[in-house]
Amino acid sequence: MEWGSEGPHAGIDAAAEGTHEPQRLSAANAQTAAWTITRAFLPKRWAEWSLTAPATREQTLYGLVHGDIRDRFLEHGDCWTIGSGACVTLWIPPAGHPGAEAFEARRDESQYEIYGARGETMRAADQLIAALKPDVPHWYLDTIATDPDLQGRGLAGRLLDHNLEIRDAAGEACALDTHSPENVAFYNRRGFEVTGRTMLPGDGPDLYMMLREGTTTR
Fold it and tell me: What digits encode the pLDDT tens for the residues 139-158?
């Protein structure tokens, strides 16, 4: 199956034109958003580490991401986009917030099974990430991604800045994890600070936990 020629890629032209402002992701754009995340993460070491079968890596990752967006994030999280899914942010709400209970376990048993031999390693990685999360109530940036064809145009920064303005207006903290010094610098410029650093199990990539304290705008 040639994924690049399928419908999920259709939202890219809209973002390329630069005519769309940040908006909440809708169910109609869930496939495009999942395809964007798949294409953005597929070249990264995280994808190779977590999905060890190259022949099925792309399709498996797409299925996992699309299912997560459809079944959890659209209803229980906070999802934003520029370009109808071409640039995406997926947020997990703070504990106690409506919908937060859907994310108490980052993955269910069926998802761990999809990872095959890496299932237990993924479980250990999720437990490690959960242990490193800040104790203060926070929105968690689970995913931010831009389709590779549109990277370098500032879309991710624009979308994240928009999301952070909303959190600032409510005085809410934000947290995230990332895997490279370059990404750390991107988030540093937006007020995030590293609160923990480790390596994911099974010779996994580096992990940086980051926190941005809540500030109220006036």
Answer: 999 999 999 999 999 999 99
Site of tokens 């990264």: 44
Helix, strand, coil percent values for the chain (each to nearest 5) = 50, 20, 30
Q: Side chain identity at 30, as an amino acid letter?
A: A
How distant is the alpha carbon of residue 187 from its chain centre?
Answer: 14
Mean pLDDT of the chain: 91
- Extended beta strands in the chain, E state: 23-24, 78-82, 87-92, 138-146, 173-178, 193-199, 206-212
How much is the pTM?
Answer: 0.91
Domains located in the chain, CATH noted: 13-212 (3.40.630.30)
Residues facing residue 199 across a β-bridge: 206
